[in-house]
């Protein structure tokens, strides 16, 4: 009896974990550059005294869906989208380097170039800082950032930095709790000159909202089934107890 209860209990718990993954994906269906998380369930052997006969289920997120999201044309000078494979290097909160596909950029009052999440964009020599005041910013296909100082004539364009673009291979990346990707080795990826940008556009989320909704419905039904199994185990236990009292 306890085996049935154990399997149902662990299954219900992991269904809740899978629901959280799908719910997070759905919540980011409109987040620029977001990559949907994948989830899978597998059986795990329980270890410990008296436990070798027990097997429980475990939900894990082995990777992310790295397919490109839709390209949305904005016409804004500070909006960029990565063409094909590749990533934009940014500075994480701990000061380390991380990677994203979110390319809606802006600069703060100090001139630091940031994306829409407030993360500083990295150049060849650290975070990119624009020389204020400026009238116009242009970003080329190879990531070169050029500015026109305030008051300068239209033909005056100065190159100030190059956005660090990398392509370490998606199989070498993992997502952190902050939503940014990093190399599994903990090292920084080298700049890749073959990575190109589209100016005046951003990449949307690759989340399929319909798929995530169907997945959530399916997981909720599985959860209900696990709960029913736990109730059945309880009813069987009561029936067994009653038979023992009769005997």
Structural overview:
It is a single chain. The chain is α+β, with helices and mostly antiparallel strands and 247 residues long. Helix content is 26%, strand content 29%. It has 2 helices and 18 strands. The chain has helices at residues 2-27, 209-246; strands at residues 40-45, 55-60, 71-73, 80-83, 87-91, 97-100, 105-107, 113-115, 120-123, 126-127, 134-139, 144-149, 158-162, 165-166, 173-175, 181-183, 196-199, 201-203. The strands form 7 sheets. Strands 5, 6, 9, 10 and 14 form a 5-stranded antiparallel β-sheet that branches. Strands 11-12-13 form a 3-stranded antiparallel β-sheet, with no helix packed on it. The longest helix has 38 residues, at 209-246. The radius of gyration is 25 Å and the shape is elongated. The model has no long low-confidence stretch (mean pLDDT 89).
* Total beta strand runs: 18
Number of helical runs?
2
Q: How are helices and strands ordered from N to C?
A: HEEEEEEEEEEEEEEEEEEH
Give me the secondary-structure category: alpha+beta
Largest pleated sheet: 5 strands, antiparallel
Radius of gyration: 25 Å
Q: Which parts are unreliable, with pLDDT below 50 for 5 consecutive residues or more?
A: none
Amino- and carboxy-terminal Cα gap: 20 Å
In which range does the helix fraction lie? 25-40%
Beta percentage is 25-35%
Global mean pLDDT? 89
Shape type? elongated
Domain Flagellar basal body rod protein N-terminal: 5-35
Organism: Shewanella schlegeliana
Domain Flagellar hook protein FlgE/F/G-like D1: 81-147
Domain Flagellar basal-body/hook protein C-terminal: 199-241
